[in-house]
Specification:
The protein has helices at 25-32, 52-57, 88-98, 120-129, 138-147, 161-175, 198-209, 227-232, 244-249, 262-270; strands at residues 7-10, 40-43, 65-67, 72-74, 80-83, 104-109, 112-115, 134-135, 154-158, 179-185, 188-193, 217-221, 235-238, 252-253. With 272 residues, the protein is α/β, with parallel strands linked by helices. It folds into two domains: 7-83 and 197-270, Rossmann fold; 88-193, 2-Layer Sandwich (Hypothetical Protein, Haloacid Dehalogenase-like Hydrolase, Chain: A, domain 2), CATH 3.30.1240. The strands form two sheets. An eight-stranded mixed β-sheet has the order 5-4-3-2-1-12-13-14. Helix 1 (25-32) links the parallel strand 1 and strand 2. Helix 1 runs parallel beside helix 10, helix 3 runs antiparallel to helix 5 (138-147) and helix 3 (88-98) packs across helix 6 (161-175). The protein starts with 6 loop residues before the first strand and ends with a helix.
Length: 272
C-alpha cells in the first residue's frame, strides 16, 4: 500500500451481506463512521435495481455502481460510463437449447430483468434481489430486445445440473469463447461478455469520476469474479469464506466471514 486509501469497493453476495443476505447493522454502523464524501462503490453480478437498497443502508444511495461483474458501470446520475453486452445470436442459441430441457432463462439489459414465467428460480431471485421481472415469453424474447435495440448485459440460466452441463457444452461448441460462462454453483450459469471484470470496470470508474488510481482503493471480495480486483487494488481484502484463488492474491486475509461482519471489522481496522 503506497498511497492513502481514498475509496472503498466491495462485492455484495458472500462478502458484504450477512446470513440474511442483507446489510448487517454492524456494517451500516461502520460505514456511517466514514466521512460522508468517502466513496463506497458496490461491485456485483447483480442488476442496478438489486443494489440500490443496499446503497441506501450503507448511506451511499445515488453513488456510482458496477453491475454485471463489470459489464455495466453507471455514474451517480445513472448514465452509462461503460457497457458491454452479449449478442442476440448467443441468446438465440440458449433459447433453442432450452426447448429440450426445462430450465429458467433470465436476461438482464441495463436495469430490466426479463424471464418467461414465475417458477421456483424466479421466486428465489425475487426474494434474493427484491426486484420484480418483466414476464416475456421465450419465443418473443429476442424480438422484444431487437425492437428496443437492446442486448443482454447478462444471461442467467437456472435448472438441473444435467441441463446446465448440456447448455455449457452446446455454447462452447457453437460459440467458442465468445462469452464468459461463470458457474459458481452446479444449478446455474451466468453468461457475460468475454473481456470484462470488476477490476477494469473499477479502474474506468475511479479515473473518470474521482481522478483516483487503483492503488488508492481498498476492495473486498470472496469469489473468483473478485480475483483481479482484489489483486490490483492498493489493499485487497479476502473475507474468511473466500475462495482460495482470492486469498492467494489478497493483501489481507480477514479472520471473519461475511456472516461475522468481516467488512465492518476491516473498515474499523483500516479506515477509521
Amino acid at each position: 500500500m503506497t498511497k492513502k486509501i481514498q475509496l472503498m469497493c466491495s462485492d455484495i453476495d458472500g462478502t458484504l451481506l450477512n446470513v440474511k443476505r442483507d446489510i448487517a447493522p454492524e456494517t451500516a454502523q461502520a460505514a456511517a463512521k466514514l466521512p460522508k464524501d468517502f466513496p463506497i462503490i458496490l461491485a456485483s453480478s447483480r442488476m442496478p435495481s438489486a443494489m440500490y437498497y443496499l446503497q441506501e443502508k450503507m448511506g451511499r444511495l445515488g453513488s456510482p455502481i458496477i453491475s454485471y461483474n463489470g459489464g455495466l458501470v453507471l455514474d451517480d446520475n445513472g448514465e452509462k460510463l461503460y457497457s458491454q453486452t452479449v449478442s442476440l445470436d448467443f441468446l438465440e442459441t440458449v433459447i433453442a437449447h432450452q426447448k429440450d430441457y426445462d430450465y429458467n432463462i433470465s436476461t438482464y439489459c441495463t436495469d430490466t430483468w426479463r424471464t418467461a414465467k414465475s417458477d421456483y428460480w424466479t421466486l428465489r431471485e425475487i426474494r434474493s434481489t427484491r426486484v420484480q421481472p418483466v414476464y416475456t415469453p421465450l419465443d418473443e424474447h429476442v424480438a422484444v430486445l431487437k425492437a428496443i435495440d437492446e442486448q443482454p448485459h447478462k444471461i442467467m440460466c437456472m435448472g438441473s445440473p444435467r441441463a446446465i452441463d448440456s447448455l455449457i457444452s452446446t455454447l462452447k461448441e457453437k460459440h467458442g469463447d465468445e462469452a464468459h460462462l461463470y458457474r459458481s454453483k452446479d444449478v446455474y450459469v451466468e453468461i457475460t461478455p468475454k473481456n470484462i471484470d470488476k477490476s477494469s470496470a473499477l479502474e474506468t470508474l475511479i479515473s473518470k469520476k474521482y481522478d483516483l488510481t487503483l492503488d488508492q482503493v481498498i476492495a473486498f471480495g470472496d469469489n473468483f469474479n473478485d480475483t483481479t480486483m482484489i489483486k490490483n487494488v492498493g489493499l485487497g481484502v479476502a473475507v474468511a469464506n473466500a475462495a482460495q484463488e482470492v486469498k492467494d492474491v489478497a493483501d489481507y486475509l480477514s479472520s471473519y466471514t461475511n456472516k461475522e461482519h468481516s467488512v465492518a471489522k476491516a473498515i474499523e481496522k483500516f479506515l477509521i
